[in-house]
Amino acid sequence: MKRFLLKFFYGLRNFDFFIFLLICWEIFARFIYPQFESRAAIFLPTFLNVLKEFWQLLANGILWQHILASCKRILVGFSLASLCGITLGFILGYSQRAYEQLQGICQIFRPVPPVAWIPISLLWFGITEAQQCFIIFIGVIFPILFNTLDGVHSVSSQYKHAAQSLGANKALLLRKVILPAALPKIMFGLRSGIGYAWFIIVAAEFVSAPRGLGCLILEGRNAIITERIFVGMIVIGTINLLFDYALTKLENLIVPWQKVSLFYEE
Amino acid sequence: MKNKSKIIFNDISKIFNGINRNSDVIALKNLSFSVEANEIFVIIGPSGCGKTTILNLIAGFIKPTGGAVLFDGEPITKPGKERTIIFQEYALFPWYSVRNNIEFGLISKKLPFKERRLISNELLQLIKMEKFADLFPYQLSGGMKQRVALARALAVEPDVLLMDEPFGSLDAQTRGFLQLSLLNIWKARKATIIFVTHSIDEAIILGQKILVLSSQPGEQRDCVEINKPFPRDLVRDQGLLDVKQRISKILDEELNNYLKKTLD
Questions:
Q1: Is there a domain that residue A9 lies in?
Q2: pTM value?
Q3: Are B3 and B156 in contact (CB under 8 A)?
Q4: Structural domain tally of chain B?
Q5: What do you get for the CA distance between the two ends of chain A, in Å?
Q6: Are B42 and B224 in contact (CB under 8 A)?
Q7: Which residues in chain A have Cβ-Cβ distances shorter than 8 Å to B80?
Q8: Residue B234 phi, psi dihedral angles, 5° rounding
């Protein structure tokens, strides 16, 4: 317990500046800004009011519903995209023929912003959960695919040569050499993918969704409750941080020979 | 007689294609030599003379532009575990522990778990690293890594062991120790070793036959046979000192030629 507390307070030291900024925000929004702007309360809520709104939304359970809705969509879209992205990345990385045939198509679709897929996906799926998941799938698959491809391509030829001269056949080479060697890049792809997923979910939810953190923000705008907008934004940032933390921990677990450090650790 | 040689290079040339014909690189030119079974064959030459190319040809990673490389009388077409290579940079798999690295070739042989353990235990003992079986490569020193690489190669019981400047990046002491261990292992296991180096001392300490190459393109300058027992005394043995002088004279000449060519 004592060790836990020590660690907790030591960890807090990294947030010194952050807490300072929050205090600055509170002072500015509560005392300074209203002096020269009569609608200050609408433009910039104070930190404590945002906290109060957060607490209220949490207490009456609405916030949980929004969070769950968004997380569910992201997890479904992200899982499907990881599965397809990693598989495709491997095929493209391993087979020269597949690379020549498919990489042109991938390069054409990659720069199309996921948001541009919203109109057509509405036609295809209607206003459904599937449509939201599809948009996330589209937005996330390319970073995962291209990072996997890069990972497979950049496996040192010495590892491959060493394995071959130890008698490894193609299957063993793929499973025991190329896959582990590409893992760090694949994990990087997954981490950037989850980041993109949050970019996209909000845009998708603005257009069509009954629930979700994007809706919470939109709700706040429509009702002119600026605090609610801030709550939505902060919650998105925090949850993304948690997802990234989980993925980094997972990476350290399955790629123990290459320790990845978190920026908020030590 | 000819068919009894382990490896035969028969008039081998290797050209690496550049962007255009002027930038083609002739790595090897009309090179012929043969390596007998169970001998330590050392290849020495100035850097860029195609030493590594020779090993890559024998390992089967690349194919010659002209001529044929024969292994037991058959042309080499692809890599295989009868010709195992050891690199200067070790190329240990960082995702495997020492033991799993050693067992890699045994897994590709589809040996059952118990046999694999038996062989890896034996090899760990041979390289004196029983205590480090569960460490990962990044936790080892350079000399330890190279010992593991050696054990990993020996695990598949190769006919020919190809060594590409294996001790090149190690300090002098570790190098001497590993040279002695290699000789001991060779005596106990009897394999053909083809050893590439740029150190004349190392060539004479290990080599029963020493092939001296010219600078690019690689051609045979000399082939020295040394019939002296191991371990060899490089300080007092006059015969060995003569060989050393003979080789260093050739290498000096080659260096001068090379400098002249590049300065003109």
A1: no
A2: 0.81
A3: no
A4: 1
A5: 20
A6: no
A7: 164-165, 167
A8: -75, -10
